[in-house]
Amino acid sequence: MRVAFVGKGGSGKTTLSALFARYTARQGGPVVAVDADINQHLGMVLGVEEDGLPRPMGSHLAEIKEWLRGDNPRITSAAAMVKTTPPGRGSRLLNLDPADDPVHARFSAVTPEGPRLMVTGPFNEEDLGVACYHSKVGAVELYLNHLVDGHGEHVVVDMTAGADSFASGLFTRFDMTFLVAEPTRQGVGVYRQYREYAADYDVPIAVVGNKVQGPGDVAFLREHIGDDLLVCLEHSAAVRAMEQGRPFTLEDLEPANADALGVLLKHVDSQEKDWERFGRQTVEFHLRNARAWANRAVGEDLAAQVDPDFVFGPTRVSLQR
Ligand SMILES: Nc1ncnc2c1ncn2[C@@H]1O[C@H](COP(=O)(O)OP(=O)(O)OP(=O)(O)O)[C@@H](O)[C@H]1O
């Protein structure tokens, strides 16, 4: 399953992405945590030192593309397969086994409590123009387009704050998006904004209250968010101590907060994966590529004369578990 954490700047997206990834890894099954936030702190909260960070995907887009475009689709995972026969050059698919594909092997690092970490890499001043921001986050989108996540496998993406996170197609790529909201007017304001986008694109969301300090805060969130409020995490002394540089493992987390992470995981895993939608997105992605290859190979004029059903009709995608 693919899970994103979004929300207002400073609401706790990075902290909750890291805690959720650690908690999920502890239950078994592979977990990849992806830092797609302009403020690249996910590695730190996962306990990775600066020199242990993986190679940044955002500045190696060409290398990732090159590998994904490989000529012979080679799908080796027995657990999760999509078979597709796009005409022209092949298009490789990824699974979460780093032994199986160079993208995970080259662009992820193991973190102390189990999740593998992938990062877009730091955003410089000149990156923050819209085009550059998207070219870095585009590496993550490309990765998710090619990834087939199997049963019991999780990808957790720490998204950037505010509207930038809905400005690329990336936000439509998740089975569940958790919107992190502090019990403040601004926090619930971002929820209202995101709810509109999510409804337009049929994106499943649930709200996670964060840093709540008592029943009044929970009541405030419930009043403004209603049934979309899934669970709340309390303001955490353990998280604060971690921020101050103390060693931290999940055992240090307050039991109520650990229980809340359990609620999140249960919610994710209870979502029947929308295979039809996932399959449709995968087919559309490969057809788009196939059209681009056809245009390049024979020229747009000639390619436009061909009945797409004739060319693409035989493409069959079967999703097997
Ligand atoms: N439940 C919590 N209890 C205590 N402190 C918290 C909690 N959640 C987050 N924090 C603290 O709030 C601050 C902001 O958290 P975090 O960096 O995770 O937010 P963010 O939404 O990812 O921010 P940004 O938009 O800058 O990426 C951090 O100092 C973090 O330690």
From TrEMBL:
ATP-binding among keywords: yes
Pfam families listed in its UniProt record: CbiA
Gene3D superfamilies: P-loop containing nucleotide triphosphate hydrolases (3.40.50.300)
GO BP terms in the entry: negative regulation of cell division
Molecular function as annotated in GO: ATP binding; ATP hydrolysis activity
Stretches assigned to the CobQ/CobB/MinD/ParA nucleotide binding domain: 7-190
GO cellular component term, pick one: cytosol
UniProt entry keywords in alphabetical sequence: ATP-binding, Nucleotide-binding
PANTHER family associated with the record: ATP-BINDING PROTEIN, SEPTUM SITE-DETERMINING PROTEIN MIND HOMOLOG, CHLOROPLASTIC-RELATED
Protein name in UniProt: ATP-binding protein
